[in-house]
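In response to a reviewer's request, we include the raw inputs and outputs for one of the modeled complexes. The two entities were modeled together in a single run.
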Amino acid sequence: MLNIAILQIGKNMEKYRIGEFEEIVLLAVGILYENAYGVSIRQEIMDRLDRKVSVGALQSALRRLEKKGYLSSRKGEETSKRGGRPKLYFSLTAAGKNALEYSREVRNQMWDAIPQSALKLKPL
Amino acid sequence: MRDDTGKDVPKFPLRLLKWFCKPAYHLDIEGDLLEIFEDRKNEHGLKTARRLLLLDVLLLFRLSLIKPIPQLNFLNHLTMYRHHFLISWRHLLKNKAYSLLNIGGLALGSTVALLIGLWILDETSFDRYHQNYERIAQVMQNQTFEGKIDTWYTQAKQLGPALDQDYKSYFDHISMSSFIFGNTLRRGENALIKKGIFMEEGAPEMLSLQMKSGNRDGLRDPYSVLLSASSAEAFFGQEDPVGQSLELNNKHELTIKGVFEDLPSNTTFSNVDFIGTWDLYIQGRPSWIHWGNSWFQTFVQIKENTDIDQVSAAIKNVKLDHVDEGMAKFKPELFLHPMSSWHLRSKFENGRSVGGRIEQVWLFGIIGAFVLFLACINFMNLSTAKSEQRAKEVGVRKALGSDRAHLIGQFFSETALIVGFALLTSLIFVQLLLPSFNLVTDKMILIPWESAYFWLGLAGFILLLVFLAGSYPALFLSSFQTTKVLKGVTIGSYRSALPRKVFIVIQFTVSVTLIIGTVIVMEQIRYSKNRPLGYNKQHLLHVPIKSDELAQRFDVFKDDLLRSGLIEDACRAESPVTSTFVTNSGFDWQGKDPGMADEFVTLGISFDFGKTVEWEIKEGRDFSMEHPSDSTGFVINEAAVAYLGFEDPIGQKIEWGENETYTIIGVVKNMLTQSPYALVRPMIFYVDREDIDQAILKLNPALSAQEAISGIEAAYKKHDPLNPFEFKFVDEAHARKFQGEERVAKLSGFFAILAILISCLGLLGMAAFITERRAKEISIRKVLGASVFNLWKLVSVEFFLLVLIACCIAVPIAYYFLSQWLQKFVYQVDLSAWIFVLVSLGALLITLLTVSFQAIKAALSNPSQTLKLE
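The model returned the following structure tokens for the whole complex.
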């Protein structure tokens, strides 16, 4: 099972290359599940990572991920708060899930590859 | 769904977003932004939310989110306009002479319009320097004399206190005031004549004087004075004069309480060098003066939210309530004359405002508009005349898919280019002409380069010119039909021929009218200048006597001057011979109609007055020292004889004043001492020994004026060392009375010359165009034996006829308006026919000269040159 997975990962190395911010956006979309649209995603990231996200950065990342096929979008309801503009909801696609898994796998493998002695450091 | 959300949202960032964002993304991004905006507004407040929204939008400007660049269609327009200007520029260069005519004509026209515009701006901004301009007024009075209402600017000294007592609630300030007149101010040895006005405490506040030092409330103490900045500098240089003192008329020691910024030239009080106190001034007037002595002025500032008319109505009867029956019969009525009308609407007829300078503003405004219109006509004529050259271009453009709107746009941008050049040129002209223009108009106008309104106005002016000059050519040129023009059918120039002719007629009608007008105004001035004066103004010098010593020792002074040969004679009089504005009533004589107002111009003189001014005795005799009884004698003028109604005036008795009886000893020819345009009023001369503080000297004609004056000044200084010597030539003072009319004549003459010049430029262009078009025809005619004269006639006669028509229209128009204008002068020049004929002939001659140049050039050209091309 594991071997197959590794094999798969190896094969898809090129395909699943995503940046750090893109990964965070994908995760946030996953966390929010049914309720992932621009404002909520941005809020989620800001809350969890305690960092500022500009609308522009988020929007361009979302569009890029959608183009790559990791995200899909659908029009949602209009609310008065938005001046009558519809929300655009995003959800993970299978490819998106794979990309996340791939990136997590790669990290885990790399974690595992660190020799124990290298991590014996004085705590800060 | 929609409620009030979005009403606080700034429009600009969203518009910006819509402009650059991919349309597919736009709506939901905007939704996100609005939602975040609302959250931020609730959390951080509106201002922060707005700022952050703009920041967010700017950060959205990313390659992945913006529209593809080719969709930004403004770039296309830019190319189009660039193309338009390029083509226009090439056309300008291709037809240099034509472009020069066009730009030159428009430049001259807009120079006139700009100069007149600046002048009107200056006239209409008169007195606006004062902050409370809209609420300041002068109290005036209407009185009825013999059924006619006279309007006076003057008031009795009692009016101020009366208003203050009963009508205070209407006014912020009430100030009695003197007129503005010359006074001697002295600091040590430095004595200067300075124009002063004497007003009450509130006046500086009312006039919102800008104090450079000291305070506006400086006129509390009677012996205080406020100086203008320039007169402060004349006495004290750079040091601060506040607290220092000056001597006024060698009598009073005044303490300087403040220095105010000089009032600008376009204010009524612009020549005021100092403001003294009313209290001091009124001390020096006789104590007996009463409600009948309207010798002063009254200025008021009404309270905010009150209406001038309402206050006028309220104070109407203030004088009537205070005067006795003798004066009540003149029905004095007070009213307010608002500051906004002082300059432009100061003429009153029969108690009503009938304009004044505003007529000149209208006159020149209309002239400016006409001259500008003439320049636009030139442009239209030349553009449409050249249409044949453009017809093919229009045809090709249309064939290539250009619609009419685009073509109109193109021709407008061509006009804009030419107008732009013309306006630049005219700005240079205006800058160069302004000094002499200011000299003629007696103004200090500058081009307000720093004013935003000026540039806005200029932009508006460009738009107006482009529209006026460009509309007709643009519509006309763009109307060509593709198939016809490309086939070579020349319809355009025939269709535009009639409007062109009409335009030429209009141009010359306006020009000829203007020239006739100018000539007649000048004739009227010349005629009035030649009007018999009744005395000899040559070599007469008028010198005010300022000290009592000199007045008492006047005979010694005169002897000094006579002995040194500086003068031929000298006398004294109550006022200068060129402005005898003292009038008196209260005369009684046998056979007087009780309804008569019996108002005469009176002039107190010394015995030798008649001899000095060389008046012309018609009957009886002059005053003479040999007849002691002459101190109760009158010399009257012819107008007075007619008014009194005496068959044989000599020896008749007239009662005047405290039961004194005067005898008429002589009659003189009418002397022109007031307006040179009005009838001479009935006038009485009497011998006075007290109040005559004006000396009139007859200079020795053998000496140059300069020699005589320096000699007289030396003698004057000996008798009156304290006061500066002042003098005026009587002939110059007389000439000054024509200034207003001369200004009108000079300006309208200048504008008329420009108008005819512009019209001739147009004519030149048209003649060049016609001869060019008919070059082949002319050549063939020449080959067939036509003489140069025949050919010249062929081209010229059409223009000659057009200008002849224009003259025929202009003459009745000019006649109508000028006979109206002359109505206001009693003494008026005849509108003789030769003026009209001569001006028309002149216009025709100029036309022929202009056209002939082109016509003869064409007629003399070698036919083989023109014909070999085919």
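As requested, we also summarize the result in words. Chain B touches chain A through 27 residues (CB under 8 Å). The two ends of chain B are 79 Å apart (CA to CA).
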